[in-house]
């Protein structure tokens, strides 16, 4: 910081402290702001300029006020503005228009979360320093308390590998490497990334899957591992959130241990999560937990600037000693790795049931729909921009599957066969149809819908407002015939009416396109 300047109000002059161009916080800010700009211009970040400014300005004003009250000086709020920009980079508010960069929608949410994040460093302190990275603790608390229907984190996967994404990778990697190297935190960042990559490798090999709003099917196995470890969002986490000099141990050995522990904690917290929202919150929460344990880490490892704070010396001490002592430590080390690996696999059990087997035999028994009966299909540019193959024969095949799914729903109700529903529906639609099946069984009266679709308009939708899976939305118009059958299978009522509905479809189990929702047309 540079001093020697003043601001005068009335007859009183107050010191004005401005940042130095060598201040690493300015360099971090330059990287984060550049990513914000790339996100607005080419990466389609669903965050508006007013939302970003609300977070940054709230933190800046709070910091200026607090430091003035303490020192009677005006100090440039470099750290506070980093907190605000970090919150705005990761936070997303449900309902923000994707095509309006100047929307004020939910700006107060960004201001509130960023402000509370900043205040945490003045309230939660240990031995004169704040315990948590402010943006990290603020985001985790917001996600846990508000839930995925209100807020969600930035996606792990930002965009196809285009010029904009390459530019973002270059900015993050070059800026991150230079800054962490200058602050002597590169070893901490590397320790975290290698640990996370190893832990998620074990998790992926066990058959782990998660759903994400940028994928029609669950992301499983190697694809899951690759997406996470190469995610630009994870790189931002390791370069600019974990490596906060004020919230990590001072010693070199302790910093490496800190990075390893964050990697272990994040992996264990991500393991049971079945969707991207949970996985991202698990990643961020790993840092919160290990930050709470930082005093313990520092207590049992060499202090900074002491003879013992040398990596090579520390490793030699760990593996040194006589033959028996060395063998004992080797066995203990191997056992620890095995136990941690087993813990990761056990913790990931809930996420290994996303891709159930079976159901193909039910679908195979349905007479195929003739392509000549296909309705008129229009495709929005967003669909072909996302995947140019979602047009022509491939899209025709998905439409045929939709028509088959609707027919099979009717057969499932008439036959009282829930296995048919499980083969063609998923999520909310499956729950809805199973409820209708229970009502039919209880009352003896079964109502089915037969759709005669004239036209379909195809778009991309996230029908349930959370990071639980991208869907194709087929907004259809035509005629629906509702038939009611009695317990003997005789039709007792038939009515026809025009309809306009959006059928949401996704490869929710990784194979067949399933119907995940039938929504009013305006919901898309």
Question: Could you please describe the fold and organization of this structure?
Answer:
By secondary structure, the protein is an alpha+beta fold. Helices cover 53% and strands 17% of the residues. The longest helix has 25 residues, at 323-347. The protein contains 19 helices and 14 strands.
Fill in the keyword field for this structure.
524 residues, alpha+beta, 14 strands, three-stranded mixed sheet
The total count of strands amounts to 14
* Number of helical segments with 4 or more residues: 19
Q: What spatial order of strands do you see in the largest sheet?
A: 10-11-12-13-14
Task: Using the CA coordinates, give the radius of gyration.
Answer: 28 Å
- Quick one: biggest sheet? 5 strands, mixed
Shape: globular
Task: List segments where confidence is low: pLDDT < 50 over at least 5 consecutive residues.
Answer: none
Question: What is the arithmetic mean of pLDDT?
Answer: 87
How much β-strand is present in the residues?
Answer: 15-25%
Cα distance spanning the termini: 51 Å
Share of residues in helices? 40-55%
What structural category do the secondary elements indicate? alpha+beta
Structure summary:
Helix content is 53%, strand content 17%. It is α+β, with helices and mostly antiparallel strands.
Blueprint (SSEs and pairs):
Blueprint (H helix, E strand, L loop, with lengths): L1 E8 L2 E7 L5 H18 L7 H23 L2 E2 L2 H13 E3 L13 H17 L1 E2 L2 E2 L3 H13 L4 E3 L9 H20 L3 H20 L3 E2 L8 E2 H9 L2 H9 L11 H19 L5 H17 L1 H7 L10 H9 L3 H25 L12 H5 L11 E4 L1 H6 L6 H23 L2 H7 L2 H17 L2 E16 L9 E15 L5 E16 L7 E7 L4
Parallel strand pairs: 2-3, 10-11
Antiparallel strand pairs: 1-2, 4-7, 5-6, 8-9, 11-12, 12-13, 13-14
């Amino acid at each position: 910081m540079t001093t020697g300047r003043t601001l005068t109000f009335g007859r009183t002059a107050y010191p004005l402290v401005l940042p130095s161009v060598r201040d690493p916080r300015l360099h971090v800010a330059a990287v984060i702001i550049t990513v914000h700009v790339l996100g607005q211009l080419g990466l389609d970040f669903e965050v508006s300029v007013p939302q970003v400014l609300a977070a940054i300005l709230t933190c800046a004003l709070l910091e200026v006020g607090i430091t003035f009250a303490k020192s009677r000086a005006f100090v440039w709020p470099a750290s506070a503005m980093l907190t605000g920009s970090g919150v705005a980079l990761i936070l997303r508010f449900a309902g923000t228009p994707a095509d309006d960069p100047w929307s004020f929608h939910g700006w107060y949410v960004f201001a509130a979360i960023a402000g509370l994040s900043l205040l945490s460093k003045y309230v939660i302190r240990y031995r004169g320093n704040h315990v948590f990275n402010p943006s990290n603790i603020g985001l985790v608390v917001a996600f846990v308390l508000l839930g995925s229907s209100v807020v969600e984190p930035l996606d792990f996967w930002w965009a196809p590998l285009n010029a904009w994404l390459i530019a973002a990778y270059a900015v993050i990697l070059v800026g991150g490497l230079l800054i962490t190297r200058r602050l002597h935190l590169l070893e901490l960042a590397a320790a975290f990334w290698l640990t996370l990559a190893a832990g998620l490798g074990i998790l992926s090999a066990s058959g782990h899957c998660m759903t994400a709003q940028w994928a029609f099917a669950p992301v499983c196995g190697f694809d899951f591992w690759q997406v996470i470890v190469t995610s630009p969002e994870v790189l931002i986490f390791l370069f600019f959130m974990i490596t906060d000099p004020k919230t990590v141990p001072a010693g070199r050995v302790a910093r490496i241990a800190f990075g390893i522990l964050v990697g272990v904690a994040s992996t264990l917290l991500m393991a049971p999560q079945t969707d991207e929202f949970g996985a991202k919150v698990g990643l961020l929460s790993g840092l919160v937990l290990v930050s709470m344990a930082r005093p313990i880490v520092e207590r049992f490892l060499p202090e900074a600037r002491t003879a013992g704070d040398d990596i090579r010396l520390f490793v030699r001490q760990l593996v040194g000693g006589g033959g028996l002592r060395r063998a004992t430590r080797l066995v203990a080390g191997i056992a620890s790795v095995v136990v941690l690996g087993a813990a990761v696999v056990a913790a990931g059990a809930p996420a290994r049931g996303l891709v159930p087997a079976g159901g193909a035999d039910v679908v195979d028994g349905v007479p195929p729909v003739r392509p000549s009966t296909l309705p008129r299909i229009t495709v929005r540019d967003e669909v072909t921009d996302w995947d140019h193959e979602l047009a022509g024969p491939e899209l025709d095949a998905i439409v045929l599957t939709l028509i088959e799914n609707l027919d099979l729903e009717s057969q499932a109700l008439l036959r009282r066969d829930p296995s048919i529903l499980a083969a063609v529906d998923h999520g909310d639609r499956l729950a809805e149809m199973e409820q209708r099946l229970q009502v039919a069984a209880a009352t003896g009266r079964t109502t089915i819908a037969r759709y005669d679709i004239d036209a379909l308009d195809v778009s991309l939708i996230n029908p349930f407002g959370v990071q639980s899976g991208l869907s194709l939305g087929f907004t259809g118009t035509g005629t629906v015939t509702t038939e009611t059958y009695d317990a003997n299978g005789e039709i007792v009522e038939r009515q026809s009416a025009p309809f306009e509905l959006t059928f949401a479809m996704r490869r929710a189990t990784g194979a067949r396109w399933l119907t995940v929702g039938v929504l009013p047309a305006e919901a898309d």
